[in-house]
């Protein structure tokens, strides 16, 4: 009898601790939902962009962008009807400023330009350039540590730009894609007709 009482008491205590552990989690989830936070994989992507090809000159950037897009539910496929083409990536370390006692500030800048295209090469919308920058203090007496910090900052700048790119892709509607593709196809058709008329 005494053993049974001990067992019941242990079960009640375990249940009590479980409730105490779950309540904060439920509270945090409710707050995040209330402020509009969306978990990865829950973005409302236009069906036209459920498959996407991603190409570009920087292998690391393209790999990370593909991974981020995949997390939203987009299937990365080289034969997809739309292509996201990263046309230019420019990483720049600015001029020295505010030098003092073996250290100086530099402005680190990362610029990325990309173009959305159809699978037959029609360029949709104007090319989009995203830029991100941050000041960085380089210590001349700790060159290795400064180089590592610079690399970390550029990684963070790259991740911010990738996140912005994913949000912009997710914001595109199927209607706007179809209308833009139709507009560009009409322009191309007129250009071909004009070219044929001159020949």
UniProtKB/TrEMBL annotation:
- Membrane-spanning residues: 21-39
Q: What keywords would UniProt list here?
A: Cell outer membrane, Lipoprotein, Membrane, Palmitate, Signal, Transmembrane, Transmembrane helix
Q: Which membrane topology term applies here? A: Lipid-anchor
Q: Where in the cell is it found?
A: Cell outer membrane
Does the entry feature the keyword ATP-binding, yes or no? Answer: no
Q: Which Pfam families match?
A: LptE (PF04390)
| RNA-binding found in the keyword field | no
State the PROSITE patterns in the record. Answer: PROKAR_LIPOPROTEIN
Regarding protein family, the annotation reads: Belongs to the LptE lipoprotein family.
Q: What is this protein called?
A: LPS-assembly lipoprotein LptE
